[in-house]
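## Example record

The block below lists the input lines for one assembly entry, exactly as stored, with component labels intact.
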Amino acid sequence: MQNSSRLALYHYWVAFAVFLPAVVLGAWQMLIRSPLPAPLDDPDAYYASVTLHGTAMAYVVTTFFAMGFGYAVTATSLGRPVRGVAAAWICFVICLIGTLMAVAAVLAGHASVLYTFYPPLLASSWYYGGAFLLIGGSMIWVVLMIYNMTSWKRDNPGQPVPLAMFAITATAILWAWAASGVLVELVGILLPRSLGLTTEIDAGLARTLFSVTLHAIVYFWLMPAYIAFYTLLPQAAGGRLYSDTMGRLTFIMFIIFSVPVGMHHLFADPEHGAGMKFLQSFLTFFVALPTLLTVFSICASLEIAGRARGGRGLLGWIPALPWGEPMVLATGLSLVMLGLGGFGGLINMGYAMNSMIHNTSWVTAHFHMIFGGAVVIMYFAIAYEMWPRITGKPLQSKALARWQLWLWFAGMMIASIPWHITGLMGQPRRVAAFDYSDPFVARMGPLVIISVIGGAILLVSAILLIVILVRSQLGERRLEAPLRYALAVNPPKTVPAALNGFALWNAILLVLMVFAYGYPIGQFFILKSKVPAYEVSGPTNSAGGR
Amino acid sequence: MATDEFHHSAAARPEHVAAPIGSEEAVAALRNGPVGALVVASIAVALLFLGWLAFYFLLFIPRGSVG
Amino acid sequence: MAETETNPLRRPLPDGVVPEEEITRTEDHWLAIMLGVLGVMMGVMVVSAATNALHPPSNVETIDPATLHLGGEFAESNLGTAIEPDGSVTVRIIAEQYDFIPNCAQVPVDTPVKFRLTSPDVIHGFLLPATNVNTMVVPGFVAEVRTSFSRVGVYNMPCNEFCGNGHHGMWARVEVVSKERFPRLAATERTSCAKQ
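Predicted C-alpha cells for the full assembly:
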C-alpha cells in the first residue's frame, strides 16, 4: 500500500501547492477590477493572471486532485495496491512537465488567451503543448483506473465492484470523453497553427470542439465530490448509504448526459442553428437529473444517521448529526452552494433564457459558486479524510478544519452572490478595468466591493487549508484506522452487469454524441469559415486597423 | 478536549455513535421511509422550481424578444 | 488503537433498516416527480419560444473577414442603421480590436430591429444589458440578432467576450429614439450616432 499512498500524496500536494497561488491571483483580480485602489494595476498583468488562475484551477488543481484521489480510492476500496504504479509515475511526470510549460508561457506574457483559449486569438506553442501534455498525459490515469477495475473484476468474478471504485472509474471514463474535444482542438487546430504548419484556422470549429470539453469537464470536477457524498459521508455521519443502486445510476447518468450537451455553451454563437441548440438544451435537462436524485439520496442517508443518533421528529435528525466532523459540515455547506449554483445552471441552460446572462458576470459567479464552492469544499473534506490515512499523521485540530470550511463557505457566498447580481445588471466578464465614473458602471461598484471582501475571506481560508495540511504532514502521532467506506442500507450481494461495468453506457454515449454533435462538427467540413489567427505575444496587441 | 483528539470518521469509534439509543429506535423512526429527507429535498426542489419560474416570467420575458 | 481492540466491524445499524423494495419505490417516486418538474420547465421554454419569439440568435451565415472593408454588405458606407421596405430597420456593425464601428447605433422605438455583426479579427461579444440581445461575433460568420425595443433611452453596449488586452476599453452605445426623432432615410442612406 505504501507506493499507492505516496502516489496519491504527491498528486494531492501538486494540486494544493498550485491551488494557493491561484487563489492569491483570484483575490488580486477581484481587487483590480473593483473601484478600490490596487497594486500592479496593469491590464496585461490582469489578463495573464486570469489565464493563469483559470488554467491552474480548471486544469491543474482538478486533474491532479482527481488522479490522486483515484489512486487512493483504488487502493483503499479494492484493498490491494494500485496496479501499474510505474505508468502512474510516468503520467505524473508528464502532467507536471505540461503544467510547468503552460505556466511558464503565461508568466512570460505569451499566452494571455484565458483557459478557454478561443482562437483566432493565438498563444505560444509552449502553452498549447503544456496543456496537451497535462490533459493528454492524464489519459494514462484513465487507462489505469479502467485496468485496475477490470482486473479486480476478473479476480473477483460475480462480485459487485465497490461503489467508490465504480464511481472513480466512471469519472475517468467521463474525463476521457470530455477531454477528447480539447485534445482534438489542440492537436488538430491550435498546435499546427502556432507551430506555423497551417495558415488559417476555423474559429467556429475550434469553439465547437472545445464545447465538448467545456461542460463535461465540470462533471469530471464534480464527481469526486459526489463520490464523497455517496461513499465517505454516510460513514462519517455514523449511518448508512440509502441506496447503492442510486449511487451507481448517478455516475452512469453523468457519463451519458454530461458530454452530449456542451453546445449550451454556444447558445449565443452564430455558427449553429436553433434546431441543434434546442436539441442540446433538451438533453441538458437530463443532466440535472442525477443531481436532483443525489440530493434526495444523500438527505435520506443523513436522516438514517441522524435517527440512529437519537434524532426525533420530522427534522430532529438534522441537529443530531455529528456536525463536528469536517466531512459532515462540508457536506452541509456544499449542499447549500449546490442549490444556489444549480439554480444558476438551470437558468443558463434554458435555451433563450441564456441570452439574459451569457458572458456576463452571472456566468463567472455561477461557476465559482458551484465549482469553487460546492465542489472544492468537498475536495477539502476529502483531503482531511485522506491525509491522516496516507501520512499516518492525524489532523492536529478538527476545530481549525471546521473554521477553514466555514470561512470558505462565507467567502464564496459573499463573493459570488453580488456577482450574480452585477451579471443581471449586464456587467461583461473578463474585463480588466471598469470606468466607475460612468453611471451605468457606478451602480455596480458597491456590489463589486462586497465581492472583493468575499475574495479576501477565501484567501484566508485557502492559507488556513495549507497550514492545516502542512501541520498534518509534519505532525508526529500515528494513526492506524484505515479508511472506511460507507455501507449501504442493503449492501448488494450482486448487481446486474449494466451497473457493474461501462460497456453499455459507452455505446449509448457514442450514439448520443453522433446524434448531438455529428452535424454541428460535420458542417465545418462544408462551411467555408477559416480565418487568420491573431497572436497575443508581445507587450501590447495592436488595435485593429481602420 | 474534543476538538484536539485524533481525527477520524465518527463511525470509526463506536462510542461516538449514539449507540445508547439503539438501532430499534432508528428502525421505528424510519418505518415510513425517510420522510424528513423527503421534506427537505422537496422544499429545496420547490424553491429551485419556483425561483426558475420567477426568473423566467419576471426577469427574462420582460427584457424583450430575441431571435 | 482502541478500534482494533473492540470489534472494528461493529455497526450501529444492522443491514436492512429500510427494506430494499421500499427504497426502490421511494427513489422511483422521487424520480417521477423530478422528471415532472423538468418536464414543466421544458414545456414553459417551448411554449414561450413559440409565442414570444424567444430563441437564441442562430443565423448561420459565413463571410470572408479579410475582404470586409473592400465592399459588400459590411463596407464602411453600408454600416449603421438602414430602413427596410417593410418599415423594420437593420443595423450593421463591425466589431474589431478594440471598438465597434459605428460605436453608437441609433434605432427607433417599437420597431423590429435586426442587428447584423461580424468581425475582421477575433471573437467579440455583443451585449445590450437590460435586454435579451446577446450574441457572439465570430470572424468568418455573420451574427444576426432580432429584437424590438419598447423603451426610449441609451443602452450600453460592452464587448462581452475576451478579445485581447484592450478588451476592457471596448464599449459602445445604442440610442433608442422615438419614431418621430428617427430620421427618414432613403434606401441607400445609413445613420448612426457615432461622433465623427
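Residues 323 and 329 of chain A are 5 Å apart (CA to CA). Chain A touches chain B through 59 residues (CB under 8 Å).
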